[in-house]
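Below is the record:
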Amino acid sequence: MGKKTLTDEQKKLNINLWIIALVTLAVYAIYMMIGNKIMAFCKDSSVSVWPRLFTVSAMQFGIAGLGITIVCILRKEPFTSFGLRWKNALKAIGGTILCFMPYILYIVLSGQFERYEPLSIMVIPDLHKAGIVATIIGTLIIAVFWGFFEGFNYAVISNIIDRRYPVNCKLFSWGTLVCTLMGILFHPMSFDLFGIIELITTFIALYGMLIIYRQTKNAWGCVFAFLFIWNAI
């Protein structure tokens, strides 16, 4: 059998995936090389909070957001075409919360839960010291890069993979599986009993979140998860 000829749409989707992968890996490689220096700079309270916030935000956006933004601009596809709409928003958020419940229970029952702190990163204490206006502006910046783009990144990538490699199954898609594994691999893992339980509950949370996105065609569940759950507990 001869090699299957790709359609123009499949070629375009392949290019989209390569753009996202190469941009993400390039920024991640930079972080791996100079990450310690970046973190030391961002933790240095003797430096103004704003350059530290913008530096760490740029790295975060580069890893989770820059690739999909380039693709959307290149293809002239608005973010709304990937599920940022009102229709089914509550259903997507509610379903996502249910999928994260095993993970939340694991964190609480294993004694890892200290306090609920959505949108809390290393520079937050210094933002608070800078005043209420700085806190509001800084928190909005954090919400954009650690909540919106990190969650929306999963939705866009899974959508592109599903369009390139479609599967007619309600509870499985290649985009869902790949993005779930991507989310797990980008976070520390251990293989003791608690580590395995965390791995399973994290898989359920991310996989379920993306299945909900696929069924509702609404990305706000993914954004909600990273705004109020994943980066909060």
About this structure: The radius of gyration is 19 Å. The mean pLDDT is 93. The chain has nine helices and no strands.
